[in-house]
UniProtKB/TrEMBL annotation:
Transmembrane segments: none annotated. It holds the Pfam family MerR_1. It comes from Marinobacter confluentis. Gene3D superfamilies: 1.10.1660.10. This is MerR family DNA-binding transcriptional regulator. SMART domains: HTH_MERR.
Length: 138
């Protein structure tokens, strides 16, 4: 069975659980390049792959500008230019460092939340213990 080569905007929207407006936005931003048949957008398998990467990048915290830069570099690397490949690796390394920092920040925030939660639970327990003797004498 051969892989499908063309997709409508509604097919992509259903597949990736996004709105057609989002897909049109990515097109307006120059990230997707569908062909047209009259008023109908026809997306290629390359557009489908790009949309998948856009959405994955979004989940990972990439901005559209960063995604565009990676697409541009990726397109340029098809020529085999060492300079573009080095730039791509630089962008990936920078993003990896950002993600590592975010992981550290999240871990620290979780520790702070745990400590705050424990203080709240201890304070609540103190309040409940102080109320118990008063309730017995009343």
């Amino acid at each position: 069975m051969s892989e499908k080569k063309q997709f409508s905007i509604s097919e992509l929207a259903r597949e990736f659980d996004v709105t057609t407006r989002s897909i049109r936005f990515y097109e307006d931003e120059g990230l997707l390049h569908p062909s047209r048949q009259g008023q109908t957008r026809i997306f290629s398998s390359k557009d489908r792959a790009r949309l998948k990467l856009i959405l994955r990048g979004k989940r990972m915290g990439f901005s559209l500008a960063e995604t565009r830069e990676l697409f541009d570099l990726w397109d340029e690397t098809l020529t085999g230019s060492e300079k573009q490949l080095l730039k791509t690796l630089e962008v990936v390394e920078h993003r990896r460092a950002q993600l590592a920092q975010q992981k550290n920040d999240i871990a620290m925030m979780e520790m702070e939340l745990d400590a705050h939660e424990n203080r709240c639970r201890d304070a609540l327990e103190d309040i409940r213990q102080r109320k118990q003797p008063q309730q017995r004498t009343a």
